[in-house]
Amino acid sequence: MRNQKIQDERILMQKRKIGSDAFQITFYGLLLSVLVQQYMFNAPFSQYAVEIILFIAISIYIIIRNIMVGNDLFESSKHSQKIVVINSLVSGLVIAIINTTLNYIKLGDLFKTNSLNTILISAMSFLCATIISFIGFEILYLINKRKQKQIQSILDSDE
Fold first, then answer.
1. Is residue 107 pLDDT above 80, yes or no?
2. How far apart are alpha carbons 38 and 42 in whole angstroms?
3. Can you tell me the distance from the alpha carbon of 112 to that of 103, in angstroms, rounded to the nearest whole number?
4. Cβ burial 8-39 (10 Å sphere, 16+ → b, else e)
5. What average pLDDT does this structure show over 6-10?
6. What is residue 143's predicted lDDT score, i.e. its pLDDT?
7. What is the number of domains present in the chain?
8. Euclidean distance between CA atoms 10 and 12, whole angstroms
9. What is the pTM of this model?
10. Which range marks the domain in which residue 25 is found?
11. Do residues 63 and 83 both lie within one domain?
């Protein structure tokens, strides 16, 4: 038999937390790398394609694995639908701010002189991003709730 070292649960949890934190740093680093290369350096897509593919693949993996194992993506409370709306609004706002900032950096004086166009572009960015985010979050919410009901019915049938 192999000598298996028994590890303390606290140490194991700390190691998992450190790995999780490192993963989050890498995940957000990929996103930042894509944004900087695309908007600030005007890099061609081929230069940051690997980062964006990894970012999307990691995002899909996290969502699918959490749904498959039954983790509730949205809090199981009567306010969970509000969380979908709030997440959509925050996503729309962040996308509009990033888009406006990067357009300001890219266009400079042209962007300053047409303040009405700037406001309209920012508002349209916010509106479109919010609607698209809401559709995505709502689909995830419905899939997640269906999986939660399946798990609950399995648990109820076992009792």
1. no
2. 5
3. 10
4. eeeeeeeeeeeeeeeeeeeeeebeebbeebbb
5. 82
6. 92
7. 2
8. 5
9. 0.74
10. 8-69
11. no
